[in-house]
Amino acid sequence: MPRICIYPKDVAQLTGRSYDAAKRLVRRAREAAGKPAGALVSVRDFCQHTGLDETEVSRALNGTSTR
Fold first, then answer.
1. What is the pLDDT confidence band of residue 66, given thresholds at 50, 70 and 90?
2. Model pTM above 0.85
3. Quick one: DSSP state of residue 61?
4. pLDDT at 67 exceeding the cut of 70
5. Least enclosed by CB within 10 Å: which of 5, 8, 43, 65?
6. CA 47 and chain centroid, separation
7. What's the whole-number mean pLDDT along residues 10-14?
8. pLDDT in tens, 17-53
9. Cα separation of 58 and 64, whole Å?
10. What are phi and psi of 5, to 5 degrees?
11. pLDDT confidence of residue 11
12. How does strand 41-42 pair with strand 5-6?
């Protein structure tokens, strides 16, 4: 089953940022989506905030090839 939520650990691995910087980025994406503290952040919310390609991020999270 494909993952639709993204966590700071995922963001740190995808972007090469530290875990703390990744937590801040996920928090900003949550706030930009208008979600309350503690709510899950979807890949779509995260990608809309960062400008990353949703398909590429989903493939990286789900371990499928980008080809």
1. low
2. yes
3. H
4. no
5. 65
6. 7
7. 96
8. 999 999 999 999 999 999 999 999 999 999 999 999 9
9. 9
10. -105, 150
11. 97
12. antiparallel
Contacts of 33 by beta carbon, 8 Å cutoff, 6+ apart: 41, 42, 45, 48, 49
Helices 8-15 and 19-32, interaxial angle, to 10°?
Answer: 110
Give yes or no for a contact between 46 and 57, defined as CB atoms under 8 angstroms apart: yes
Q: Which residue has the tokens 């400008």?
A: 51
Instruction: Give me the phi and psi of 62, to 5 degrees please.
Output: -90, 0
pLDDT of residue 1: 83
Helix and strand element counts for the chain (H, E): 4, 2
Joined together, the tokens standing for residue 5 give 């939520």
The tokens for 52 are 């990353």
SS3 42: strand
